[in-house]
Amino acid sequence: MRDAFVYAFARTPFGRFGGALAEVRPDDLAAHALTALLGRAPGLDPARVDDVFWGCANQAGEDNRDVGRMAVLLAGLPTSVPAVTVNRLCGSSLDAAVQGSRAVESGDADVVVVGGVESMTRAPWVLPKPSRAFPAGDVTAVSTTLGWRLVNERMPREWTVSLGEANEQLGERFAVPRSRQDEFAARSHVLADRAWREGFYDGWVVPVPGTGLARDEGIRPGATTGTLAGLEPVFRPEGTITAGNASPLNDGASAVLLGAAGAVPGLDPLARVAGRGVHATDPREFGFAPVEAANRALARAGIGWSEVAHVELNEAFAVQSLACVDAWSELGLKDPEVVNARGGAIALGHPLGASGGRVLATLAERLRVSGDRWGVGAICIGVGQGLAVVLENVA
């Protein structure tokens, strides 16, 4: 088995729900990210891309019918470049990277593009198709933006609670108070704003033409624990989760170029995919699933938490992020401040199918800038799953 390397990455700024990217179709967002990525590898003939693995969680509207292949065609790549769309909900584009890296390692491909897209703004309402014509009863349109829909009645009710309620339960289990959640959320905004001002995202976060959006739209530079403390709980009257300490709804796309050693002309590899891990839990405990997923990825990379210099954990909710970081600290993570040191999803945004690509790209860039050797990227996934990748800096 040979190694798979990260060579380049690009993404759009992440837009708010109904914000600057609201008028852009998801397949166009995907095509833009793909074009921007290949622009960072000018020596690579696009016809040499062996496959495209593309994540998308919804696929109920304009992102239907293999949006990855649609992006390839809209981006003007040769029609000989194939593509598949991967759906592991919030982990879709990280799973795309997992599948793409395996293809490279096995020799099935030399160069692959991985990434993902989501337009939560443009996610449609859907109607269940009746089993017979002209049913007598009412029919309800269901939003496809987020969460369970058209649930099978055989599913236990405790499994199909909202994502927020599931994390309220997680907060009770691990005794994570509201104050810690608000502090973590404010930190995310402060660090994201600082990273943008210091130029960390320059060059590889590429604006979408005609939108006027130059950086992630949801960042609130003035966020403090005090301002967040004034927000009302969303899921329980006396709960701890608010709109301020949970990730928002977003639009955006991300893309990463993977390949074998020497496979991308003109570019040296940045990081090696050193380990991968997936884990499943009770659906209500999905927020905690990254803990074991990352443990498994580290074991496969042959290292422990004490060697990890950087962590990118998708911040679906502050409460689940804190539960994961606390668990990793008990296992040997030296400093919790290495987690999301350039901001996280609470500030940057969480367009479901694109977030895994953002996590992987940010991790690779942090390793490149710092010169440190090891990093972990992880993400929680609705319905009780977690996914993680370990990168080794080779730049």
Structural description of this entry:
The structure is a single chain. Helices cover 31% and strands 18% of the residues. The chain has 395 residues and is α+β, with helices and mostly antiparallel strands. It has a domain at 5-121 and 248-393: 3-Layer(aba) Sandwich (Peroxisomal Thiolase, Chain A, domain 1), CATH 3.40.47.10. A hairpin with a 3-residue loop joins strand 11 (374-381) and strand 12. The mean pLDDT is 97.
What features would you highlight for this structure?
10 helices, alpha+beta, 395 residues, Peroxisomal Thiolase, Chain A, domain 1, two-stranded antiparallel sheet
The CATH topology annotation of the domain at 5-121 and 248-393 reads as Peroxisomal Thiolase, Chain A, domain 1
Tell me the name of the CATH class of the domain at 5-121 and 248-393: Alpha Beta
Looking at the overall shape, the CATH architecture of the domain at 5-121 and 248-393 is 3-Layer(aba) Sandwich
CA-based shape: globular
Q: Which spans of ≥5 residues are poorly predicted at pLDDT below 50?
A: none
Question: What is the chain-wise order of helices and strands?
Answer: EEHEHEHEEEHHHEEHEHHHEE
CATH homologous superfamily descriptor of the domain at 5-121 and 248-393? Thiolase/Chalcone synthase
Radius of gyration: 20 Å
Binned, the helix content reads 25-40%
Note the main sheet: 10 strands, mixed
* Overall pLDDT metric: 97
User: How would you classify the helix and strand content by structural class?
Assistant: alpha+beta
Strand tally: 12
Task: Report the total helices.
Answer: 10
Q: Span from first to last CA?
A: 21 Å
Work out the strand percent: 15-25%
